[in-house]
Amino acid sequence: xxxxxxxxxxxxxxxxxxxxxxxxxxxxxxxxxxxxxxxxxxxxxxxxxxxxxxxxxxxxxxxxxxxxxxxxxxxxxxxxxxxxxxxxxxxxxxxxxxxxxxxxxxxxxxxxxxxxxxxxxxxxxxxxxxxxxxxxxxxxxxxxxxxxxxxxxxxxxxxxxxxxxxxxxxxxxxxxxxxxxxxxxxxxxxxxxxxxxxxxxxxxxxxxxxxxxxxxxxxxxxxxxxxxxxxxxxxxxxxxxxxxxxxxxxxxxxxxxxxxx
Length: 261
Ligand code: ACM
Description:
CATH topology: Nitrilase/N-carbamoyl-D-aminoacid amidohydrolase
Distance between the termini: 38 Å
Number of helices: 7
CATH architecture: 4-Layer Sandwich
Helix content: 10-25%
Number of strands: 16
Order of helices and strands: EHEHHEEEHEEHEHEEEEEEHEE
Radius of gyration: 17 Å
Structural class: alpha/beta
Bound molecules: acetamide
CATH superfamily: Carbon-nitrogen hydrolase
């Protein structure tokens, strides 16, 4: 099956335009699963809780879910994309999972990065695996990668492909994903953003280099650092379901859990 990421450079606060650009790029992408970056519709560098609240939307039911559902139906694709979720007075850094028949579920970022702790509640839904029929996907958002437990939990729950929405500012993740995928024998689609945001005296430069990584430590596609880009790779789900490294080593059955406490 074919999977893809869309690497783009959203304009802060220009939600309508950012959604429109993403929909145009999805229209051009020939894949069964498409992953978009973290907070792809709003931009990342929030400066107050009020601002975050203004940029948030209910999930499901918001305009981003509606727009992505419409294009998912038209293209017969699954989409995973990051956005700010409003739930009563709480905000979450969430990712929505959309199937060709509409909203399928959501993930709320568990490991918040830096000032995100000022605006967002830590995710409270756990790591969940979505069965798409053709494969099982697990979702995580950006800094979750720093905690090996995130991908391990998703892999132990049966995920074949980790859909990883990101706004990476550190240079380490892309290389680290090679090991994360190897040690769990899963695929990962890291959809990062590019560009720089400067707001109220703060600035972030995002590292691009979105990546599709395979279970055998192979980089199947790595994007440029600056370009807006669609990355597509062919994956083989049977490879992620075979956890045998050799006739004697099954990477999950060989775990010595009682020594890990
Ligand atoms: C990050 O978690 N956005 C670095």
